[in-house]
Design a protein that fits this description.
The chain has helices at 28-42, 68-75, 93-106, 121-124, 136-141, 149-159, 164-183, 227-230, 262-267, 293-304, 321-331, 344-347, 354-369, and strands at 5-12, 16-17, 53-56, 84-87, 112-119, 194-201, 208-215, 251-261, 274-283, 313-316, 373-380, 384-392. The protein is built from 13 helices and 12 strands. It is globular. Strands 1, 2, 3, 4, 5, 8, 9, 10, 11 and 12 form a 10-stranded mixed beta sheet that branches. It has 393 residues and is of the alpha+beta class.
Amino acid sequence: MSREAVIVSTARTPLAKSWRGAFNLTHGATLGGHVVRAALERAKVDPAEVEDVLMGCALPEGATGQNIARQIALRAGCPDSVPGATVNRFCSSGLQTIALAAQRILAGEGDLYVAGGVEAISVVQNELNTHLVQEPWLAEHKPEVYWNMLQTAEEVAKRYSISRERMDEYGARSQQRACATQDAGGFAAEIAPITVTMAGMDKDSGRLYTREVTVSADEGLRPGTTYDSIKNLRPALAGGVISAGNASQFSDGAGACVVMSAALAAKRNLTPLGRFAGFAVAGCDPAVMGIGPVFAVPKLLSRAGLKVADIDLWELNEAFAVQVLYCRDQLGIPDERLNVDGGAIAVGHPYGMSGQRLTGHALIAGKQRGAKRVVVTMCIGGGMGAAGLFEVL
């Protein structure tokens, strides 16, 4: 009898603005432990039953280092017998862990896994270890692999003649769609509110302080955003076209899914959110890493015997509006099926966690809209793309 892997629950923190937001003093194990515990509770699973906790992280050092997945498993209340592994494929890390969990179920290694991702940018990114960060041969022969993401986004805009106007129109629409979804309660089913201690500064006196806050909604949404309100924002690079209005927000957050064999889910009378139906990765020129989905999606669909038209809902991570526009047009994705509730430009992009957020949201939104199939895809730093196929149940 063939085995199937299904996702039976999803939980994520709200996404907080990096450095200025609620999670600017919060350790990765705190964020991750919270969502793993919530996902297990929603699936009615005893933590001791978990075969492995797989967590994606793009910056696995400092407060998200020391094999953060193992720390998260313990922080979530799992017993010592439950192991953990940290996975890094940059921006697709959270999707990669879900695929790995599903593949292990299909291979017969186990029946119950937790998969997701975490990123605590506020307490990690500006304190990274940069000792010998570049390998000399690569720096000479393939320097683009070390470019920052802004450089690659500018290159996509230049190489493929995508205007600032188009980007800003898309950026404003992302905010408008996300705000409308939040107002309608469309993110509530995936969010697990959390209480933390954050740091702040009094504007008048400059005095630093800490306070306890409970976060229940994404902090990056800006109601009332229009094209006119962002079209004159200063570009991030002098003379460039990428601005805060058309790029993803730096955010902190964590998310987790419980991935289970279909047989075990049926035995427990659980109604899954969806079934894992395929995963693909592909490489591309690091200088235009944002176009990675153009190469990953065809591999995914070809293996599944499907076409773009067969997919009812698409979640394409909004690292930058410029790469979403290029990928959408090259792949022929119908605009009305793409990022229907906004994306990272509005909600935020905690690198290693975003794949989990996109998957959980795609399945929930897909069920609400009567979708049969959804695809989650994203570009990846260093010149890659990833895509996952799920059937809504």
